[in-house]
Amino acid sequence: MSLKIQPSNVHLIEVKLKSEFNDAEGLAAMSLLKEQGLSNLKEVRMGRLYEISGGLSANQAHQAGKDILCDAVTQEFRLVPASPAPMNGMNFWRVEVWLKATVSDPVGATIVEAIAEGGLPKPIAARCAMLYLLNGRATSAQVEKAVAKSLANPLIHRVVVTEAHP
Amino acid sequence: MSNLTELPAAATDVFPILGKSSKELKALSAARHLSLSETEFLAIQAHFKALKREPSLAEVETIAQTWSEHCKHKTFTSPIRYVEGKKTRSIKNLFQETIVAATMAVKKPWCLSLFSDNAGVIAFGKKWALAFKVETHNHPSALEPYGGAATGVGGVVRDILGVGLGAKPVLNTDTFCFGRPDYKGPLPEGAHHPTRTLRGVVAGVRDYGNRMGIPTAGGGIWFDDEYRLNPLVFCGTVGIMPQWAVKKEVKPGDLIVAVGGRTGRDGLHGATFSSANIGANAPSSAVQIGHAIQEKRVLDALLAARDKKLYGSVTDCGAGGFSSAIGELGANCGARVRLEQAPLKVSDLDSWEIWLSESQERMVLAVPPKNLKALEAVFAAEGCELAVLGEFTKTGRLEVMHHASVIVDLDMKFLHNGLPRVERSAVWTGPSSTKVAGGIAKKAGDALREMVGHLNVCSREWVIRQYDHEVQGGTIVKPLQGVRHDGPGDACVIWPHAATGDMEDFSCFAVGHGLNPDYGRIDPYWMAMSAVDEALRNLTCVGADPARAALLDNFCWASPEDPKQLGALIRAAEGCRDAAKGFGAPFISGKDSFFNQSKDEKGKDLAIPGTLLISAVAPVPDGRKAVTMDFKGPGNALYLIGRTNDELGGSLYHRVLGRAGGEVPKVSPAAAIDGFKALHAAMTRGHVLSAHDLSEGGLALCAAEMGFTGEFGCLLDLDECPRDPRIYSNETLLFSESPSRILVEVKPENESAFLRHFGKSAKSAMVRRVGQTTANPILKVTGLEGSTCLEESLKELKEAWQTALPRVLA
Q1: What residues of B are labeled active site?
Q2: 3-state DSSP: chain B helix, strand, coil percent, rounded to 5?
Q3: B295-316 as b/e, with b when 16 or more CB fall inside 10 Å?
Q4: Which residue among A105, A106, A155 sits closest to B287, beta carbon to beta carbon?
Q5: Considering CB atoms only, which of A109, A150, A155 is closest to B143?
Q6: Could you tell me the pTM of the whole model?
């Protein structure tokens, strides 16, 4: 298990569908993961992560999340704290799929421009990731293997698997 | 020296090659992913020995990408010693002797640009021109299906932006070859399952094309397990441009201006990587994620600048990046480049990386200095970056500097003409036997039900619906047709009014394809002939003028260093030559992709079947008279154009039965083009209600598709089919895949007028009334003996046809 710790000038914004909405992307991801052997999965919810470097204070990052990165009707967002709380769920997994640093991130590049056009200071850089929240019995190794075969490509992606709160 | 740690890191570093043995040079090539052969490296060594100096790293990298198979098409242009049976002959230049020779023989005045630019260009009316290019992006798509396919689309769109002074993309086409999605066998470490490749490739094409606002309305998919490690991804784009913009010219003194995306470390060694087998050590930098919005900005700005005539020439940064783009633009004059001016994604790039990077969404322009300010304003208005990298010169040299260092100083003549020509060997032994063997006989109805649900025939709606094929509002004949908009169209018809701005001119164009690797397993010559025939009859079916058709070839093959593979390639190229001459249809562009082979799970080489995609484009004189393939009503006459022979070799029927052997379909171009022209004449006079070509599955499958798409049935009488009189089998007449055949629906009152278009051949074997449409949605066929040999519910056939692909993907 590896934890991701952000420096103070880097903000990690998490955006996902509100729980009352059906998550079609999550369902599709669950189907792919089950094909790879995670047959005990009960639910997968999907979201996006935006790592924004430089330029923004915490309040400004909050505003970017609220006004630019999140659709307030269907989605919710939060700033992921720099030091995540201890995790406790054996059956809940958080999977982050990031593009490797050597791979271009067009969505990240667009977000840098969008934040600047939204009236906030222009960040130095932004990277985005797909977030999968898995509910179901599995081991870390099983999750990593299934993700590498279905939701990520080890050639261009870096995958972070951590235990998560339910 | 073969240790990577001993290799130079900086572009200005000397790359010592003088005095090294060929073995050492080969090791150097492998260590740096240069894909240079020993002979090529020895030629470089000799060049620098004459100069009495060592090359720099950047110079060797520049030469390697310029001489790559991707850029120089060495297989098609090298001399070959070809053995066919007991005959041996020499081929000096396969490309010139087949594709180019046929095009020159055909001599069509409406061909405006052939083989010399980023795409082929033909006239479209008096004012406009159509540019068409189909690229392959196989190796990147095998490694990263989403990114590889998306950048494949981005690359071919830039080819269209970089042809002449730039054309506006109005259509994307995409054809794929994959392993079967239900493949259950083992795969080597790191290989993607075919289902994952399919999903990723389709998503990549969808996202890039849709976001750029270009309709994706043509293409196809072929499944065969021999593609499981090497999928083929053919991305095509058609663009439209004013005829005055077809010519381009670089003048000494013009500024070298880079526009679009920034340069990063991504995409290094793409050109040289595509000239090698895919292996576990493929560089991750050979794969990129495209930025469609960035390319859309480039598109809008570039076309605005074109219309203001602000630049004299343009090309895209594809394989080889600046090195290739600037090297090609300055090939006839010279270029001096200052790399420190290039906008970068990251600041720690080495100079050779800036020079060679294949970062996407970049173009290079040749701009007269007086136009620079105006050009800057146009690009700034679209939020698109622009940088002056240097100027074109009269020196005949490629000079590249980074800050105070000279990293490249090469003679353009050596760079572009110094590639040593090495004779290769090729062998063709012909098919072992045409005798039909093996398999289990099935009733015609059972076979047909299996065939409509076969992966190479079934509905592609799951894929097509992901693409926006309506954007720009000009897709007149759509990929899905019929009363429920879900039947299989032959070709798409595009009315490019959004680009021309002329709502009174109904001139359209159609794009069709032909591909069948199963024929190539028997004889690649007839595969090529059939592919051309199929592409042209698809065009004819929708109302395009077959006499104005232009062709594109895309050869995808395994290693040409294997004489048998090269022999098969020659057969296919000669088939293309004879088809182009026979049909009077010129080739205007093409592409080849080699080394489509990989180590399988047992470490053995798994090669793809030799694959040829023929794409064809032709004008539809009046889009309002375009025709779709669905039956339009009951009681109409059905005519079969073309003769049926006993040609079941490589057919879907044999595949379903598990049979081998048989005669591969053979094309007679003269008779075929006569039939196509006559049908086109009938269509232009409104005498045809629907038309559909007979391809995989033959007459039975063609009639079934027309029936279930229009929701009308039909009665067919096999005894009325124009045929080889030696055929006594109903199954042969139902399922033979003899080429050049089209089933046509005609109103009873128009039958005489329809037949008049066929002249004397109407009374010969070329066209015959073989049945009629019915209100009851049943396909009923009377056999040669006079009794019913096939009676199937079209509803059930359609269900089998529609559910096959979703079922295997579920």
Answers
A1: 70, 137
A2: 40, 25, 40
A3: bbbbbbbbbbbbeeebbbbbbb
A4: A155
A5: A155
A6: 0.93
Q: Please answer whether residues B674 and B540 qualify as being in contact, where contact means their C-beta atoms are separated by less than 8 angstroms.
A: no
DSSP state of B285: G
pLDDT band at residue B269 under the 50/70/90 scheme: low
Mutate to test the interface with A, among B198, B289, B345, B360 (most CBs of A within 10 A): B289
B787 touches chain A (CB under 8 A): no
Kindly list the residues from chain B whose CB atom is less than 8 angstroms away from the CB atom of residue A156: 144, 147, 284, 287, 289
Is B292 in CB contact (< 8 Å) with chain A? yes
The residue among B299, B385, B387, B309 whose CA lies nearest residue B342 is B387
Q: Which of A32, A153, A157 to mutate to test the interface with B (most CBs of B within 10 A)?
A: A153
Joined together, the tokens standing for residue B485 give: 């908009």
CB B702 within 8 A of CB B737: no
Residue A162, classed as helix, strand or coil, is strand
Contact list in A for residue B345 (CB cut-off 8 A) is: 104
Q: Is B288 on the interface with A (CB under 8 A)?
A: yes
**Amino acid at the residue B289:** I
pLDDT confidence of residue A5: 47
Q: What is the pLDDT of residues B329-367, one digit of tens each?
A: 999 999 999 999 999 887 788 888 899 888 889 999 999
Q: Is the pLDDT of residue B58 over 50?
A: yes
Of A100, A104, A153, the CB nearest to B291: A104
For residue B11 the two structure tokens come to 């572009």
The answer to whether the Cβ–Cβ distance between B144 and A156 falls below 8 Å is yes
* Position B114, amino acid: L
Please, what is the end-to-end C-alpha distance for chain A in angstroms?
Answer: 17
Whether the CB-CB separation of A131 and A23 falls below 8 Å is answered with no
Cβ-count burial B462-485 (b if 16+ within 10 Å, e if not): ebbeebbbebbebbbbbbbbbeee
Candidates B144, B196, B285; nearest CB to A102? B285
Partner A contacted by B140 (CB < 8 A): no
Per-residue pLDDT of B607-645, as tens digits, reads 999 999 999 999 999 999 999 999 999 999 999 999 999
* B592 contacts B73 by C-beta, under 8 angstroms: yes
Section B502-513 average pLDDT: 96
Q: Where are the domains of chain A?
A: 10-163
The pLDDT value given to residue B457: 97
pLDDT at B606: 95
**In A, which residues are within 8 Å of B192 by CB distance?**
153
C-alpha to C-alpha distance for A105 and B399, rounded to whole angstroms: 32
Could you give all domains of chain B from N- to C-terminal order, each with its CATH number?
Answer: 117-219+238-417 (3.90.650.10)
Q: Is B103 exposed, middle or buried (0-12, 13-18, 19+ CB in 10 A)?
A: buried
What is the 3-state secondary structure of A7-58?
CCCEEEEEEEECCCCCCHHHHHHHHHHHHCCCCCEEEEEEEEEEEEECCCCH
Asked if B513 and B175 touch (Cβ cutoff 8 Å), the reply is yes
CA distance B637 to B715: 10
Take residue B37 and report the two structure tokens written for it.
């052969």
- Tell me which fold the domain A10-163 belongs to: Mth169; Chain: A , (3.30.1280)
Q: How far is CA B247 from CA B89, B100, B229, B252, B332, in A?
A: 38, 20, 41, 17, 16
The whole-angstrom separation of Cα B153 and Cα B134 is 10
Longest dimension (CA), chain B: 88
Q: Is B287's CB within 8 Å of A103's CB?
A: yes
CB contacts < 8 Å between A and B, how many? 49
Q: CA–CA separation, B141 vs B126, rounded Å?
A: 39
